[in-house]
Design a protein that fits this description.
415 residues; alpha/beta; five-stranded mixed beta sheet; four-stranded mixed beta sheet; 13 strands; disordered N terminus
Length: 415
């Protein structure tokens, strides 16, 4: 099977790219790539200072910011159309579009998404989840055909091998799919299931759901009593992850029987936590957030898992925790002193010129640094919990509105 690039949505935070991937970001009209996505493009992916549009290294700039309170919709629309034409002509590249224009430029997701309608139809372009949902009426259409395409060739062989009690081929990723993020290989990412919703859609698919149950039944009936002997390492772990995933979204199904027979009922802990469940298949409502004396952030009900952030990013998070009423980004200059004091509590000897400039950038509403910090905070929580739970913990709010952390302050423990 020929490998192809695939990504359902552009990740919220990107710090590395494959050789053929391109980071697509919003630029100001002067091409001054300072903070946020444009700063990331310059520091990591080859964006050129002073170049406002086009391919530069492993990045592609789309000019959207023409100055404070200045909107040039026709120019932005034309720039996106030029990008779409470029992407269509370069099928050898895969373009990861960030939330272009939805920071300092002041566009709402639903506005900017419309400009990318034609780009959404391209196989070598991924868009932010918010854009996709706007263009699909709020409903997510999962690309389950990637599994069908792979299985049409490999599934009969996989079923025969399981019945024989010995896996020999290389089909584990798309016959026994697991939650995305457990592996780092191409196939692990390409065939990773994004969450509960996609897993449920997989089971409801007229072909895929039936095949998964059929091959699980064949596994139960084969004469080999050892999953290690059937699959070998590390595929034996992938199968356990797969069975855990589908058992959690479809209790009392055949998947629990596989776990009982081959894994003594033990589920994949990483899958459980990524989906926001705990053992016994009882979904956690919300975990207490424990802020230690040294400002370590722990999810108390998730085995005290630490939510790791860099000091300034953590200071931003604590600032918003201190203000349950929320803070509009345009008000951030008023909170510069408080943010500095929070940073000093974590790094008392590290308030150098560079740190001062970074704090000034974060509290400057004309820059995109605050959006970058919010993306890092979101990514930190998504490492531990499903998106439906994580959204209670990170900073969120509509463009132009007050941003706040939704978590009830009763669940926050300050030591």
């Amino acid at each position: 099977m020929e490998e192809k690039e695939y990504m359902l949505f552009t990740p919220d935070y990107i710090d590395r790219l494959l050789p053929n991937q391109v980071f697509v970001f919003g630029s100001n009209a002067l091409g001054y790539h300072t903070g946020g996505a444009s700063g990331t493009a310059r520091k990591k992916f080859g964006a050129v200072w002073g170049q406002a549009e086009g391919l530069q290294g492993q990045s592609y700039a789309i000019p959207v910011d023409y100055g404070k309170d200045v909107r040039k919709d026709l120019e932005v629309k034309s720039a996106v159309e030029r990008f779409t034409t470029f992407a269509k002509a370069h099928q050898e590249l895969f373009f990861l579009v960030t939330r272009v224009g939805c920071g300092i430029a002041g566009y709402r997701d639903e506005e900017m998404a419309q400009y990318f309608k034609d780009a959404m139809a391209l196989n070598n372009v991924s868009l932010p989840k918010s854009f996709v949902e706007c263009l699909s009426g709020g409903e997510t259409n999962y690309d389950l055909e990637r599994f069908v395409d792979a299985q049409n060739y490999a599934y009969p062989m996989a079923l025969r091998e399981i019945k024989d009690g010995q896996k020999r081929g290389h089909w584990i990723w798309y016959v026994f799919p697991q939650i995305k993020g457990l592996g780092h290989s191409y196939n692990s990412e390409f065939y990773g299931i994004s969450g509960k919703e996609e897993a449920q859609a997989y089971l409801c698919h007229p072909v895929l759901g039936g095949r998964l149950r059929e091959i699980a039944q064949a596994l139960l009936e084969c004469n080999n009593p050892s999953a290690d002997n059937i699959f070998g390492f590390p595929d034996v772990l992938k199968v356990r992850s797969c069975m855990t995933l589908f058992d959690l979204v479809s209790p009392n199904d055949i998947f629990n029987k596989v776990l009982q027979k081959y894994y003594n009922g033990e589920r994949c802990e990483k899958t459980i936590w990524r989906l926001g469940f705990r053992e016994g298949k009882q979904q956690i409502r919300l975990s207490q957030l424990n802020i230690k004396k040294d400002y370590t952030i722990l999810l108390a009900d998730y085995d005290n898992r630490e939510v790791r952030m860099e000091p300034l990013t953590k200071a931003v998070y604590l600032l918003f925790l201190n203000h349950p009423e929320g803070i509009a980004f345009k008000q951030l200059p008023d909170f510069r002193e408080e943010l500095t004091n929070l940073y000093l509590k974590m790094k008392p000897l590290d308030l150098n010129d560079r740190a001062i400039r970074s704090i000034e950038d974060v509290t400057n509403p004309t820059l995109n640094s605050i959006n970058e910090k919010c993306s890092r905070i979101k990514a930190a929580f998504l490492e531990h919990v499903d998106a439906s739970i994580a959204e209670q913990y990170y900073i969120a709010g509509k463009s132009g509105d007050v941003k706040r952390i939704a978590l009830s302050r009763d669940l926050i423990i300050w030591e």
